[in-house]
Amino acid sequence: MTADQRAAPVVVAVDGSERSAGAVGYAITEARIRRSGVRMVHVVPAPLPESGLWPAEAGDIAYLERAGRGTVTREAEAARAAAPEVDIEPVLALGPRVAQLVAAGASGGLLVLGRETRHGAERLVARATTAEVAARATVPVAVVPAQWRDSGHNRIVVGIKTFTSAGELLTRALSVAACRHAVVRVVHAVEVPDLAADLGIADSYAGESVTAATRLLETVVHDWAVVYPGVSVETSVLLGRPDEVLVESAADADVLMVARHHRGLGHTARLGRTPRAILNVCDTPVEVVPLRWKTSGVPIVLESDEEILKT
Fold first, then answer.
1. pLDDT band at 2, cuts 50/70/90?
2. Which candidate, 232, 226, 258, 2, places its Cα nearest to that of 134?
3. Which are the contacts of 275, defined by CB distance < 8 A and separation ≥ 6?
4. According to the model, what pLDDT value does residue 305 have?
5. What gap in Å lies between CA 272 and CA 253, rounded to an integer?
6. What pTM, to 2 d.p., does this model score?
7. Residue 221: helix, strand or coil by DSSP?
8. Helix (H, G, I), strand (E, B) or coil at 309
9. N or C: less crowded end of the chain, CB within 10 Å?
10. Tens of pLDDT along 114-137?
11. Any residues with CB less than 8 A from the CB of 86 and at least 6 apart, and which?
């Protein structure tokens, strides 16, 4: 993690509900580790003008703005009382919720969202909002359960889908682990296709796939791990659906990191099936890391007392 990244604030979305509690606590913890501030953002999804007409009365919008400002002010005051040493900046944003959160996160080092806990239609809408923010943000997005408390496990689990693009995610995980003095467990899931079972070769397919994947994973991880000699790294190749494997593997972790693979703006699914499934059920904070497809090799890193100075 570079000095610039440490100085960038941790941006956290707040809405005055219980689901913000875990996200705020997580953001404060991250800010302490990074020695940065926290920017608390509350979005009022005020209707925007269309064809020169407001779809709501101006008085209604003014009321929403006042209520929103009161919400973010109260959240900021509570955070300052809990963490007086952390600089807390309240921000009120008006407009489409996804676009405003993505924009707010762009100037930060991490964007933190609370995982939805409501039921029914509101839950579906909020889930979609969380997934869309994670799919579009230019910085890592952490989705945190409402009941989150710092577990102190000092373990980061990293889900690797493809070996060719593993470097960016591993660099992120290992640099964070170096600052946290945490162990990194790198997990790759092998899913046996139905066709293998239909042909009666499921066991042999699974065995050969696990052996080959283990060899590749150990090779890839070793190339990056040698740059961070102070970080203990474990590797695991497990059979099963990737989302289920990763959620179970992260049960005793502080955070589960997964990649958001690069897709064009017009792609219909900018966040893959596995990250979407994990975000809905994981009781461990999930960090979705956007990949930029950098093709450079293993990073050169300068460290001082296990703090990353340059990559």
1. very low
2. 258
3. 134, 258, 260, 286, 288
4. 40
5. 22
6. 0.84
7. helix
8. strand
9. C
10. 987 554 445 545 567 899 999 999
11. 28, 31, 32, 37, 38, 79, 80
